[in-house]
Amino acid sequence: MPPTKSDTLANLTRTLRAYNIKRRLESSASPIRGGVAALPASAGVPSCAAPNSIAQSPILARQEQVNAAAHACAILRLRPYQEPEPEAVPEATVVPAAEPPSRPARKGRIAARSKLLKPSTYRPDVPARDRLAQWTSPFGKRSLFGNNTALSLGARKARIHALISSVEPKTIETYASGLLRFHEFCDSEDVGEEERVPATGFLLSAFVAHSLGCIAETTVDNWLAGLMLWHSIQGAEWCGDRALRSVKQAIGKHVPEKSVREERPPVQDRHLTALRDVLDISRPQDAAIWAVALWAYHGCCRLGEAIPQSRGLFNPTRHVTRAAAASFKPIARTNKVAFHLQIPWTKTAKRAGALIVVTETGDGLCPVAAIRNHLQVNSNAPPEAPFFAFVEGQESRVLDKMTFMRKCTPAWEAAGLPSAKGHSFRIGGCTRLLLLGVHPTMVAQQGRWSSAAFMRYMRDVKTLVPEAIARACREVSLQSIEQVLNMQAVALV
Fold this sequence. Notes:
Blueprint: H1 5-21, H2 23-26, H3 51-56, H4 58-76, H5 131-134, H6 138-145, H7 153-165, H8 169-188, H9 201-209, H10 217-234, H11 242-253, H12 269-277, H13 284-298, E1 326-330, E2 337-343, E3 354-359, H14 367-377, E4 390-392, E5 395-397, H15 401-414, H16 424-435, H17 440-447, H18 461-475, H19 478-492
Antiparallel strand pairs: 1-2, 2-3, 4-5
Helix pairs in contact: 1-4, 7-10, 8-10, 9-11, 10-11, 12-15, 13-14, 13-16, 16-17
């Protein structure tokens, strides 16, 4: 007759009590895992050993205790207890040496795994910004952990960390998308892991050609730049060849319409006027918004040089604070004032920063007056606060780009003006100086351009030139035209 549940529980209780009495002897016994599947089909309720029997044979007593527990769980339909397995040591991945973050750590979001990407120990599910460091290959593992180099493991990890640190975090995420697309393509074509790094020119050109007519050439450039950096991290040579360059040219000739972005329009004086109409610059937040708008416009600045993308991304090593060197200085041989502000970081100068100078204009769009007002209204901000922070109650608040643009965009839409983005302030400031007749070298100095790259903003002048010509025509008189003609006649003589 099979044992009942009550009999089994009683036997189990006696066995466990005996086991606890002699637990010191049990510590010398090796653990024996048991389970329902390990019991013979004819196994009944194991006989319970008395305490003295356990003392005589602790290993057998341990076996009886495990078997009793397993049999009881089988009858009671409970999951049998199993001692935890030792955690498996994951395969070594390429992780750069840790370094204290220069800004508050941002929790990465792991995107939904691509349906085209096959599971692999070489490609764990990590945030996009960690793919270049954590995704590896057989070649990369041999390069990092192999004995084919005299460098220590620490030196090799430091090299990887330096390579990743050479690129901005936002660019790293862009590069990661190219790495993802490359492995999706390789999985779809059953390309082996050993054949992916170093990737041959044939494989790279086939990867790019696979997207012909679907993406823009700039997208391909970003993908290949990411793959090139990843190859460097893996210690592999880049094998791009002439065929790859030819395929890239083909991509540029077959750009789909959806990938062609419209040129960003410049912010103009009328944009600023429309923004001013919806602001009350006696309020702390509006005063800060107005100061940022005019400072970025007249200083040909990127918004990211003044305010962070979001409040949690404020970084005093990247964004100017109240403790920065700032001063109002008179301009020689004029009755006007210029405002000087030293910012800690720029896209090109990096940590060297730059000195931004904006000049008093004396009109309703004067940047110097806006900054004076901001510093007066938000005078209680502490030195460690962002320079363009605003005060609410007794606390200072970070003005971020999202808050700033949420104020600008509705104002421009209500006024029927073309929509503009954050970078449009820099474009508009450049365009304004060119239309005022400022020499291009001075424009480049104001915008901190080291080359003639700023001349690409001349594309926006075509919308403003007619207005400038009409304004100039109204200022021309017959007398001035006669003087010009007389000067030309004298020159001919």
